[in-house]
């Protein structure tokens, strides 16, 4: 029997969607969704979703004060580990935090009453990647709010190896991507972005997906870079972006994650688009589409799309 989904999904007024396929067989979508924490949605099949309410909520003594963005959750050693972005009450700078729960629906509780790390600059959009050899890596964006290069505000992507508990670093962060392709630089002379990292491994190579341009602009889009190592060097694909605005109907598709369809084989990209394509803003909604790799090993996305489609 065919599995049919319809874009946009019934997950509204969000941003930065991340979908976890949990050991219980269900899918959990976490997203930028509330001013004081994160909500989640649950699905048995990626097509039908129900809202599950808060899974993480700021406490009076939380280190994070506001701007709760881009949660990602992994299941590891019997627990669910969430990495997320928030604005540090101490200095009003963006940082990454880590919280743990026994259930994919939380409640997630902060491991530290401070950010996961502090290198003296704003950091957002944490992503965990488990390699085949058991090593773990953490990708994040050094945010453009505090990263100024040659007079420009730029967001750059970094990676560091994680300790086995996923709570700290074994190595110093390494720069792996910055805005340099024409599609990433033509829209602003003063502000440029590479953010929202997500890593896949295919036939021994590492594919670093990321978003570029301003999130509240039509030009927000997804590209990727390839490396023989999880720490780079990464080379950006010549045919970037692989997911971009389409016509008057779809604006700013980006900040993606990737999961497997219920058949366990079909790759599915999860991303957001602007709710009102004529007036791009932080009001966004979730879409999914099929994706894969062609005969030459290039990543492709069958989207962005609206309406009903067969997933498997």
Structure, explained:
The chain is mainly beta. The protein has one domain: Glycosyl hydrolase domain, family 43 (Tachylectin-2, Chain A, 5 Propeller). The chain contains one helix and 25 strands. It has one helix at residues 182-185, and strands spanning 4-7, 12-21, 27-34, 37-43, 50-57, 64-76, 79-88, 94-101, 109-110, 123-130, 136-142, 148-149, 152-154, 156-161, 174-177, 191-192, 194-202, 205-212, 221-227, 235-236, 254-260, 267-274, 284-293, 299-301, 307-310. The strands form six sheets. Strands 2, 3, 4, 5, 21, 22, 23 and 24 form an eight-stranded antiparallel β-sheet that branches. The radius of gyration is 18 Å and the shape is globular. The model has no long low-confidence stretch (mean pLDDT 98).
Q: Which characteristics define this entry?
A:
single chain, 312 residues, mainly beta, four-stranded antiparallel beta sheet, 1 helix, 1% helix
Helix and strand arrangement:
Blueprint: E1 4-7, E2 12-21, E3 27-34, E4 37-43, E5 50-57, E6 64-76, E7 79-88, E8 94-101, E9 109-110, E10 123-130, E11 136-142, E12 148-149, E13 152-154, E14 156-161, E15 174-177, H1 182-185, E16 191-192, E17 194-202, E18 205-212, E19 221-227, E20 235-236, E21 254-260, E22 267-274, E23 284-293, E24 299-301, E25 307-310
Parallel strand pairs: 13-16
Antiparallel strand pairs: 1-25, 2-3, 2-23, 3-4, 4-5, 6-7, 7-8, 8-9, 10-11, 11-14, 12-13, 14-15, 17-18, 18-19, 19-20, 21-22, 22-23, 23-24
Report the C-alpha radius of gyration, rounded: 18 Å
Low-confidence stretches: none
Mean pLDDT comes to 98
**Architecture in CATH?**
5 Propeller
The class by helix and strand makeup works out as: mainly beta
Topology order in helix (H) and strand (E) letters? EEEEEEEEEEEEEEEHEEEEEEEEEE
* SS summary, helix count: 1
Form type:
globular
What is the H level of CATH, i.e. the homologous superfamily? Glycosyl hydrolase domain, family 43
CATH topology label: Tachylectin-2, Chain A
CATH class (first level) name = Mainly Beta
Helicity range: under 10%
How many discrete structural domains?
Answer: 1
Number of strands: 25
* Biggest sheet record: 8 strands, antiparallel
User: β content, as a range?
Assistant: over 45%
Q: How far do the termini sit from each other? A: 8 Å
